[in-house]
Design goal:
The structure is a homotetramer of 309-residue chains. Chain A has 309 residues and is of the alpha/beta class. Chain A has a single domain (9-307), classed as HybD-like (Rossmann fold, 3-Layer(aba) Sandwich), CATH 3.40.50.1450. The first copy, chain A, has eleven helices and nine strands. Chain A has helices at residues 13-17, 45-51, 71-88, 110-115, 147-150, 154-165, 210-213, 228-242, 251-266, 276-295, 303-307; strands at residues 25-32, 35-42, 56-62, 95-99, 139-142, 169-178, 187-191, 217-227, 269-273. In chain A, α4 links the parallel β4 (95-99) and β5. In chain A, α3 crosses α10 (276-295) and α8 (228-242) packs antiparallel against α9. The model of chain A has no long low-confidence stretch (mean pLDDT 87).
Chain lengths: 309, 309, 309, 309
């Protein structure tokens, strides 16, 4: 069937068939409490071509229980977030956190919402509270807005800030589209590759990575929507399968059908949980906590939430 | 196929087949500029049973061009809103406007957002600005919250207020679910029947109508979502049709398939435009303007937007 | 000098001179960590007349260090809030929490902001999460809005809800005006007397107390503003004192002066911290936590913040 | 008495005494309907030194009636805003609008709120709606946040954007402090000098002007607060005057007194209208409308509000 839009390396259809050192793609999974961690490593151009993604490491933390208003899943997720970010960001030096997306569109607001809760310290200098002196890493955090609202390319705003601050690394937060609805607000992807053009809900036109910014870029994303067209495709696949239909033989006919549903009715529609506003707030809180724990290892467990505002 | 969830009388599947005085359902359509007005009248129990709705008049104002950032469609819609509301609400006496739904869930926030812009005058009395004296009808407006947030049945809160104010009519605003995605934020249904239990996105448990409140209740709703299950059903229908499949014969099999898609993946998911936050704000503005023009006929054209805040 | 507007019993000018059993007013203070607790008890009509307040117990929790972004002061305040509320609310039965004030005026938004974080359970019934069954007290929470926005008297909305729910007690949250700027967002007053008409920033016209609602009402308030006129009065007093001016002799002249400053320039102006938005969020969080701990004693320490949303 | 903090050139105490060509300061006033326009021109270094401000033109539009919920004052203000901005910005070329301040602190949120309503067109290119082609000037609009929240100097973010866009002019919006409470949300100052370091509520550390950005900068500000210390000073002045006190003789004693009131009680407190949230929204709407009319002269009267969102 036709290509499905997803920003998760884990959901790439090619991944199911082609892994192994020869193919250039390594994949391993491990359960940590409520969190299933999947690491996809693309080690050469061959793998990059097969998955349509840059060479690098893609860590996916899936925590289906996250939506259930319980304590443990969140703690497990935050813990893995901290470890993954720590493994991708240099141990010292200024860090710049960028919240991509549009604050006023709920499904695209993850980045700005995380930024609101990142502990920002770069400006403190002399004004650091006495009890915190010597224990804070220099962090700045900006939500640069989106092209459609500001009229300025996001990447250009970020580039200007990077040139001024000269951080040792950038962490870019973005809302993603996924293939499966269960991933919405329950899965986090962290990649050391930066952000590709055209990815994310906001469809950035320029990449944010080491090539464009000159420093390592860690991309952290959470699926917020599934495109409605994906649901239509899934329904058709299921039906075809159930009716003993030969999908390979009729692939073109099915693709044409999906296209008709999309054109006639679905357009730019997305599938999302009804209570997405609350769930994006929860996952933003967890992501920010993970980032803060990774970037401020010298703060006590109890100090971090207080400083998050 | 199995029953599709919709709050629009216009989309009732029965409507396509059964109209006419004998069936108890009258239907007529008229184009007003960019707005297509459809009036469905259920005139007896027979019609009520066929459509699964109360006896009464359901006016649907559809304005597909509304999303296109143009002036005329909005003006046409506001004008029809004013006329329809005027035709359903007594010409004098206190009016109470109720904004149903959850302010913090975008797809359910239409009611509270409209309430924010309704001109409220009941409390003014002596403090009415001199220039407005004698020209204002007494209006109050309350967003009572939802059961899941307050722990109190919405209808009970409304009943308490009605008993105190004793209005001549209640206008209840609610976000709806529709069958077709094109209706989202482009269609308004106004009914003189009040609100049924289980309708609206919030699924109110108790009816808001003349029986429960003791005064006429005008229900005004706008579709905000389509249930994701509906998309799956549409895709299957289309496929079945295209493949020369006999839907009637395999109805049960198709229903079972849809159920599987829903159970496995769609759950409580809804389909919505990506930029729903902006579109609900726009339609709330238009609805409030229509209500204000209907309830405050003695205000000048230019005074109303200013008083809307 | 002329009477200063304050909602804190602790700041009543009469209190400084007249206490003791004969006067009908008892007062005691105790330090709990960072929190200074002052209990003013008005035990008879004589005391009530002297202070211009109802007979009852007024507990003031002052925590000047609260604004300093530290952990301990907040914990100490939450702990005293829990104990005070527990001592004023019956040990079992439904509780209704009312958030007075206008959500859209920052200085008046404390009540609605607290309501957003109170754990609401009354509607759960069968749907209580399995792990919480038998451990939750029935609580509902409503922010009824203000007369100027809804056109309906707040107290009438509350009365309707009370008649329906028949709670064993009402807790009413309100933003207050104080005499001293240091009290803003750092002091909480909890009184078992309910709320008087004309108190709070919103100037409610009808009392919320046992007489009007038929059940005990605990009033919980936090100063959010000092009226600008108060600052002018303080400056004049200070000057008069410093210049060896006999205030008693020139009291009328001073009063007239203050009136002129107020009329000419201050009107409805209030004095408030520049970052009041952030501080009201912080104190609302602490107040909600205190209420939740008092009303849900069977929840574990860690469960409460998660359920607060 | 000691220097009073104000960001309005019009309120400079020196201005009252020293104007004229020799002094280097020209001042003229004209009434336009409800709006009093005052133009202060500083024409040489002597005038600059006397007022403590840069050489340039400061236009103040005062509209006391603005708070009265009437139509005409707003229209008059918008009209003068358009004309003043038109006179300060080149007739063609890209314009960058910068909204300074902290969106989450109401008193400091004017800049971001105006930005939300400026018509942004720079990114449209091919996607310009057909009806608008050839009629839109290229405009971009950014709210860069404040140092205390992002950790990055605002001016550096702006400089990066200016270097990328190379606009013909920058318009910088900011919330100001004034000396008189009547100015709050009723007065707009537009200056062709850019923004000085230390001005505005947010106290920017670096200037935004032609020297630092390389292009002309128009500074547009609205007073949002009066520092509470100012009120204390006013009260003392008034008292001293009334009591036949020789202010010049006792200036030091008065200054010391004010300092005591400030130290003991006022600190960082500000005086603001109780309903500042609503009033900042109203003035932001008027300012954005004035900017849009100035920058998009080829749009029809009715099109502009619709495009403002």
């Amino acid at each position: 069937m036709s290509r499905i839009r997803t920003d998760l390396a884990l959901e790439s259809s090619a991944l199911q068939n082609v892994t192994g050192e020869i193919a250039g793609i390594l994949m391993r999974q491990q359960q940590f409490g409520e969190v299933m961690e999947t690491v996809v490593e693309i080690i050469n151009e061959r793998g990059a071509k097969a998955l349509g993604r840059s060479i690098g490491r893609y860590v996916t933390l899936a925590c289906a229980a996250l939506s259930a208003d319980e304590l443990e899943p969140r703690d497990a997720l935050v813990s893995r977030l901290r470890q993954t970010i720590t493994s991708m960001v240099p141990g010292c030096g200024d860090v710049l956190v960028i919240g991509l997306g549009n604050r006023k569109i709920t499904a695209d607001s993850l980045g700005p919402k995380v930024i609101d809760r990142v502990i920002v310290t770069r400006h403190m200098g002399e004004q650091t509270p006495p009890g915190l002196k010597g224990r804070l890493r220099s962090v700045s955090a900006v939500a640069p807005g989106v092209l459609g609202v500001t009229g300025v390319e996001t990447a250009e705003v970020v580039r200007g800030i990077v040139e001024h601050i000269k951080p040792c690394a950038v962490i870019a937060i973005d809302a993603l589209a996924a293939r499966e609805t269960q991933r919405i607000c329950t899965t986090v992807q962290i990649a050391d590759t930066g952000i590709d053009p055209g990815s994310g809900i906001g469809n950035h036109r320029m990449a944010l990575n080491r090539e464009t910014l000159g420093v390592p870029v860690v991309a952290l994303g959470v699926p917020m929507v599934v495109y409605a067209a994906t649901i239509a495709r899934d329904a058709l696949s299921l039906l075809a399968g159930d009716l003993g239909f030969d999908c390979d033989k009729h692939a073109q006919a099915l693709d044409a059908l999906v296209q008709r549903v999309v054109d006639e009715q679905l357009g730019d529609m997305v599938v999302t949980p009804r209570e997405v506003d609350e769930r994006v707030a929860n996952i933003a809180e967890a992501v920010a906590l993970g980032i803060n724990k990774a970037l401020q290892p010298d703060l006590h467990e109890d100090e971090i939430p207080l400083l998050m505002h």
